[in-house]
Amino acid sequence: MLNLQTIRAISLDLDDTLWPIWPTIERAETVLHEWLALNAPMTAARFATPRALREIRNAVELQRPDLAHDLAALRRESIRVALCSAGDDPALAEPAFELFFAERHNVTLFPDALPALEFLAARYPLVSLTNGNAELARIGLESYFVASVVAIKVGLSKPDPRIFHAAAHAAGVQPHEVLHVGDDALLDVLGARNSGMQAAWLNRTQVMWPHEERPDLELSSLGELCNALT
C-alpha cells in the first residue's frame, strides 16, 4: 500500500509513461531512411527498409557495450557503420542523426499525461528519470520538472540503485521520500523498490505482474495516480 505521508517528491519515467515510444521511433526511422535515399542512396539500397536500419543498430549495440548508456551515440554510430558498409560518406552520419533525433522528439503524449503533469507539478517537485535520450526542453515539458536525470549523464541506467539515488538528490529529498512512477516492471518498479523508494507501476495494457515483489501502487492511467495522491 502506498504511504502518502512520506512522499515529498516524484520521479517519472518518460518513454511509454508520458508518451508511446515505438510509434515515435518507427516514424523517426522512416524519416531517416527517406533522407538516406536522397543523400546516401547506396546505404538506402543496402538497408532497404527502416527495419533493416534498426537491425544494424541492434548489432552495433552488441558490439559496443561501451555505448549502452548513450542511446544517441549508439544510433549515431549505427548510421556511420551503415554508411561505411555501403560505401557512402561516413561524414553524413551527423546530419542523418540530427534528422532522426529531431523526429524522435516529435512525440504524441498520452491523453492523461499533460493534465497529470500539471496536477503533480503543482504539489511535488518532479524529476524525470530515463534510460533513454529524450530531452524535455525539445518536447516542451521542461517547465514541469525541477531536474532531469538521464543515464548518459549519470553513467548508469535503471535499475541500478545509484541512478534512483541521483534522482532523489536532484529533488532535494531522501530516497524513501520519493515515489517513482514508470511502466517497466523491472527497470522502474523493482529498481525503485531496491533503491528504497516507493514505486507505482503504470500498467496501461493490463498485463499480469511478472514478479514476486509487488509495486506499492498499480495504475492503468496517470489520472489514477492523481486520484491516489489527492
Automatic annotation (TrEMBL):
Keyword Magnesium: yes
Claim: Metal-binding is one of the keywords in the record: no
InterPro entries: HAD-like_hydrolase, HAD-like_sf, HAD-SF_hydro_IA, HAD_sf
Gene3D superfamilies linked to this entry: 1.20.120.1600, HAD superfamily/HAD-like
Entries under Pfam families matching the protein: Hydrolase
Needed cofactors: Mg(2+)
Keyword set, alphabetical order: Hydrolase, Magnesium
Gene Ontology molecular function, alphabetical: hydrolase activity
Domain of life: Bacteria
PANTHER family on file: 5-AMINO-6-(5-PHOSPHO-D-RIBITYLAMINO)URACIL PHOSPHATASE YIGB, N-ACYLNEURAMINATE-9-PHOSPHATASE
Protein name: HAD-IA family hydrolase
Organism: Aromatoleum toluolicum
